[in-house]
Amino acid sequence: MVILVPLLLVAVFVALWVMRRGATLTRVCRWREDRAAGVDLWRCAVCGAVTQARGAPRHCLRGQG
Questions:
Q1: What is the CA radius of gyration of the chain?
Q2: In degrees rounded to 5, what are phi and psi of residue 44?
Q3: Roughly how many angstroms between the first and final C-alpha of the chain, as a whole number?
Q4: Position 25 pLDDT exceeds 80
Q5: Is the model's pTM score more than 0.70?
Q6: Which DSSP string do the residues of 14-55 spell out, in sequence order?
């Protein structure tokens, strides 16, 4: 029983960390493909970040570039 409680706490911490790591999707950013500017060019309608990628970016690129 003494080992079970710390083990449970570690398991909960790891589970929350894994769920948070996968949830870093762009919550604020709204990525739109800018077809007029070129192929695979994405522009954020919220922060104005621009990137070239095959699909919509999964992370906010605000302040980069």
A1: 19
A2: -85, 130
A3: 53
A4: no
A5: no
A6: HHHHHHHHHT-S-SS--EEE-TTT-TTEEEETTT--EEE-SS
